[in-house]
Amino acid sequence: MDLNRIFTNQRTGKSVATEASRTDYQRDFDRIIFSAAFRRLQNKTQVFPLPGSVFVHNRLTHSLEVSSVGRSLGSAAGEFIFNNFGKELSPESQSFYQHNLQNVIAAACLCHDVGNPAFGHSGEDAIASYFEKNESGLKEKFSPKEWADLVNFEGNANAIRVLTHQQNGKDDGGTQLTHSTLASIAKYPCEAVAKDKASIHRKKFGFFQNEKDTFLRIAESVQMLQDADEPTAFRRHPFVWLVEAADDICYNIIDMEDAHRLGIVSTSDCENLFFELIKSENKSTGRVEDKLAALGNANERISYLRAKVINALINKSIALYESNFESILNGSLNRSLLDIYKDGNRSLQEIESFSREKIYNHKAVVEIENAGYNVMYELLDHFIPPILKTADKRKSYDKMALKLLPHQFLYENGTDYQKILGVVDFVSGMTDNFATDIYRKIKGIEIGMTM
């Protein structure tokens, strides 16, 4: 790949670059911060139920922290590219890698989760399984590729839709981000029918059929490498690895800190796991031990160790990015940076194994996933049958159901596929509280006026 051609300030929609004190990539960051889709992340579950008396991470705080880590990774990667490939770079490219790659990665990290439904991964599962369980009555209404989108519903693909799709009455191009930022969140740059679990870039899928043309324009503008055997599948863009690493670093470590604050993980277990990872990357840990001895508060001790662990993982991720840069550019790398690191570091393996056993299978987490699955499934079942009926076939209860759908999600003149996506947009965009509130009202569990 030509390092001069893998970034662009071209945006979705009809927006054109304008003179401003901020760069185009800084403007991406600001547009995401002020978007409704980003704001809604404040009440979407990360891992633990919300709200509670103990503050834990939600999707918004997680995204902010991933963005902070991503900015550090982008800055270091930009410096590496400038120092090692500077003679091959145009003046514009030199400036980009020195000053703006960090802004692209920070913006991409900020919006990497905007397509995720309420209630964590159980929300995704509910949407996909709704179509699987109702295949006999629905599948015939869609093309094979459209049906593949629905039965494999994926938050990553939905993020591209949320950020680029023009809703009824709204501006063309969605949030109108640069193609550079959008390409950086495309972990799985292929359509649903091209999925292949053996390939890291096709393990899931990255765009719906409705956004296919938009994604192809993005891929072309940043010179993404096309798979030889699949016309609608691409190798990952080089910036994706940095966004993925930032996300992996944060959820591996921050979930442990949250579990400690909730009393799910003991202070000694958390300290030992974090300290062992720090020790694996540092010959001397005297300063860390001295600092811990001076801190009497358990939460403060864990916060300090968490910061040291994240710093160690940032440094290791950059080292791996640099050593694998050639295979990243030619599209041959088939493992994430942290997966490569785990092979040689038992401490991170133990953190992941401990989290899986003690955190992700904890009763409170399993309960919210079960409840969330049922809420999301029932909401889809309330709206999808009515939207697929023609106006003359709708009964009064169908019409009443559709009155709850905001205008921007109603595509009455579209295909059945577009109508369904409108419903999915509405339901997947809901916060945990809003989804639960609507569910309780339509089921008659709660009756009365609320604003």
UniProtKB/TrEMBL annotation:
Pfam families: HD, HD_assoc. Gene3D superfamilies: eoxyguanosinetriphosphate triphosphohydrolase domain-like (1.10.3550.10), Hypothetical protein af1432 (1.10.3210.10), putative deoxyguanosinetriphosphate triphosphohydrolase like domain (1.10.3410.10). Keywords: Hydrolase. The keyword Hydrolase applies. Residues 59-252 form the HD domain. InterPro entries: dGTP_triP_hydro_central_sf, dGTP_triphosphohydrolase_C, dGTPase, dGTPase-like, HD/PDEase_dom, HD_domain, PHydrolase_assoc_dom. This is DNTP triphosphohydrolase. It comes from Kaistella pullorum. The gene is dgt.
